[in-house]
Amino acid sequence: MREFLNTAFYWVVTELTTLLGFGLAIVFIAHLIRQKRSPSSTLAWLLAIVLIPYIGVPFYILFGGRKMKRMAARKQRVYAPGTPKKADLIDFDTQRLLRSYGVPEESQGNRVEIVETGEEAYARLVEMIEGAQSTLFIMTFVLSNDEVGRALIEMLTRKAESGVTVRLLIDDVGSWWLPRRALAPLIKAGGQVAYFMPVFHIPFRGRANLRNHRKIAVADHRLAFAGGMNLTASYIGPLADPARWRDLAVMVEGPTVDDLEWLFFSDWKFATGEDLAMQFPRPLEPSHNHAPATLSHRPGNSVVQVVASGPDVEGDPLFESLLSLVFFARERIWILTPYFVPDEMLVRGLALAARRGVDVRLIVPWKSNHPITDVAREGYLRELHEAGASVLLYRPTMLHAKAVIFDDKLVAIGSPNMDNRSLFLNYEVALYIFSAESVGETARWAERLMAGSTVYEPKRGASREIAESVLRLVSPLL
């Protein structure tokens, strides 16, 4: 009798567990289908949930979120309401697409400086911090406890002690290994530090996979630094280092600074509840008086547009604008990215552009710091190579720059990689710079990288092609 009861008990538990698993799978499949995803992303998650529900469902709970409507509704708008300084400057279909998502129009009168090396970036940041008189707002993905990170924290501490308002926002996952004690002097001096969407937070506010990858620094409401560089010795430093990762950043002065600062305000309020926009209201017209000494206060001639993406943004304006620009390009599309695991539509658009005679060049590192993405990218590289695009592998060191040049009119520089995570998941920001001078400067920098690159040659072998095909199928999950 006891044996019968034990058997019956285990049978009931097994059946209930199975029913619960299938029930949860159905719930999450319904949630998955309702979300606006690419077909490849939907299929990859669907296979994971159906074929391995005991793994797929927990992973979907932790990493499957994309757009979080309730959270976005609570978050301050990423773009400022009412921007009278803006004007219709560029008649692009892409601009109309961006405006349909509420992206601010491009602004004129900006002075832009392309920052090409880690030592130059470090020098600009130091000048920016030391020259700040009233406010310093810094947001980064990675802040390390190395010589660079410690030096920057020490500088910020001194500025806070002198009465400058200092706010530092770091991503909880990107800066996971930064000990809290390293920030104690800054906090004691009056600076404020916040972690964006902590993983272990009660109550649970977000998903572990939605990370803030934006890198922005703003001083005195008038000077901004943005791009792909993290605050660690791998990216920046006082001395030249041939092993340092190659990356790009932008120094900008002008109306665009308002848009970058507002984006910081939005992320800061979400992380802390403090409304900096109320403390520092936007001027009706941009002022260039008393600008920091790092750039001249003379108005510039660059037209710049700030394009943000992420769970706090309606739709996918960054991805869709890049896709639109790919289809409208007539002369060239040059892409620099550390990781190339993009959406199928973007790859197909680039292949079509190459076939219709556009000069398509893709520069990626020979080996990145994520080996699995290097294998996953192989099928995409082969497709572009076979379409006639130039695929180049940069060998001297890790290439971490994120830039795209379209014809001679526009260069996009910022934090997004050419992968599904940056284009559809993470909080990202890019600067669309409509300046022949900036385009030319970035193109010349890219050409110097090409000189240190080797031409891609497709790797053959049945086992490799099978592995590539499998990874391509699950690439939306990477």
TrEMBL record:
Pfam families, alphabetized: PLDc_2, PLDc_N
Enzyme class per UniProt: transferase
Transmembrane segments: 9-33, 45-65
Domain of life (superkingdom): Bacteria
Keywords from the UniProt entry: Cell membrane, Lipid biosynthesis, Lipid metabolism, Membrane, Phospholipid biosynthesis, Phospholipid metabolism, Repeat, Transferase, Transmembrane, Transmembrane helix
Any single GO BP term: cardiolipin biosynthetic process
Entries under PROSITE patterns matching the protein: PLD (PS50035)
UniProt GO cellular component terms: plasma membrane
Domain PLD phosphodiesterase residue range list: 208-235, 395-422
Main location as per UniProt: membrane
Official protein name in the record: Cardiolipin synthase
Natural source organism: Paludisphaera borealis
Organism ancestry: Bacteria, Pseudomonadati, Planctomycetota, Planctomycetia, Isosphaerales
